[in-house]
Amino acid sequence: MPTIRRITDIERPLVEALEKRGRSVEKAMGAFLRVSVGEKIYVIDNKDHSGPVMLSNLRGWIDSFDRGDHLILLTMGFFHPRCYQYLIDEKILSRIALIGIGLRDFYDEEAKATAFGEVEGGVFDAVVSVLGDRGIDVDVVTCKYCGGRVVAYCSSCGALLCKSHFIQCPLCKATLCHTDVSDCYYKHEC
Question: What residues have CB less than 8 Å from 39, skipping those under 6 apart?
Fold first, then answer.
């Protein structure tokens, strides 16, 4: 079980971890923390509610920041699967990380922390390290079939897919599970 009740419980340890790594950290207007890494700006924000973060909420949150900022959103809940699909569709996967610390869906019985998006780099590593110190191990969301890095999702079943496990329909360009792992391609109608 998570050993934090609110995301703000990790504010001080997170600031210390980032400063120890030589990062400039400040309290951000309208966000949790703002971190400068050379020319890049990372904004770390939080949602303490334990329910799902829906796509409309995520869109509004992303739009409230500059397009050049790298964003990390932590929530005590989980992200609706459409949030992951939105990041892939909008091609903003490389600058946004979503970290859900609570239950992953309505049927989970215990919390399982997951991360999706830009899950590499010093700022993300510091966040994961601080959560790890609190007993929260963060698993990166990966391809449903092999554990590879997610680059697409199936328009039929919604499975998150790596570059080896998706195929596009030659007629409508829909992304589908590769024929080696699923029959979504054969069931697809355009």
Answer: none
Parallel, antiparallel or unpaired: strands 96-100 and 70-75: parallel
Backbone angles phi, psi at 69, to 5 degrees: -70, 145
132-141 pLDDT tens trace: 999 899 999 9
Q: Where in the chain is the domain with CATH 3.40.1350?
A: 7-140
Candidates 175, 98, 174; CA nearest to 138 is 98
Contact by Cβ (8 Å): 80, 54:
yes
35-88 per-position pLDDT tens digit: 999 899 999 999 888 788 999 999 999 999 999 999 999 999 889 989 999 999
pLDDT digits (tens, 9 = 90+) for 6-40: 888 899 999 999 999 999 999 888 889 999 998 99
Per the CB < 8 A criterion, the answer to whether 140 and 167 are in contact is no
Q: Which residues pair with 74 in a beta bridge?
A: 46, 99
181 alpha carbon, distance to own chain's centre: 25
7-140 has CATH 2.40.50 classification: no
Contact status, residue 99 vs residue 114, Cβ threshold 8 Å: yes
Q: Is the pTM of this model over 0.90?
A: no
Asked whether 138 and 99 are in contact (CB, 8 A), the reply is yes
Burial 85-95 (b: 16+ CB within 10 A, else e): bbbbeeeebeb
